Amino acid sequence: MADLLDLQAIATHLGLSYETVRSYHTKAEANRRAGRPKVGDFPPPDNMFGRSPVWQDTTIDQWAAHRPGRGAGGGRPRKQP
């Protein structure tokens, strides 16, 4: 059975700050509400306890394993020598 994690538990699980995880969640929710979800967005909650979202640890582990790395998706091309 999967464990349920809140934002603080996710931060600890991934070795990130609470503020970072909360920011990932807030931005992903805004993208979903606007109808513009992005690849690599934080996953939607698996359940709610009152007003608190929770995720299964397997959901978070799968997201973390498949999220784009730093600098993924473009940026300014490197200068050619």
Helix percentage: 40-55%
Give the total of beta strands.
Answer: 3
- Arithmetic mean of pLDDT: 89
Largest sheet: 3 strands, antiparallel
How far apart are the termini?
55 Å
Give the strand order, joined by hyphens, for the main sheet.
1-3-2
Question: Helices and strands: which structural class?
Answer: alpha+beta
Can you offer a commentary on this structure?
- By secondary structure, the protein is of the alpha+beta class.
- The chain has one domain (4-66).
- Helices cover 42% and strands 12% of the residues.
- The chain is built from 3 helices and 3 strands; from the N terminus they run βααββα.
- It has helices at 7-14, 18-33, 57-66; strands at 4-5, 47-49, 52-56.
- Strands 1-3-2 form a 3-stranded antiparallel beta sheet.
- It starts with a strand and ends in a 15-residue tail after the last helix.
- The model has no long low-confidence stretch (mean pLDDT 89).
Can you lay out the helices and strands and say which pair or pack?
Layout: E1 4-5, H1 7-14, H2 18-33, E2 47-49, E3 52-56, H3 57-66
Antiparallel strand pairs: 1-3, 2-3
Helix pairs in contact: 1-2
How do you describe this structure in short?
The protein is an alpha+beta fold and 81 residues long. Helices cover 42% and strands 12% of the residues.
Which structural traits does this protein have?
81 residues; alpha+beta; three-stranded antiparallel beta sheet; 3 helices; 3 strands
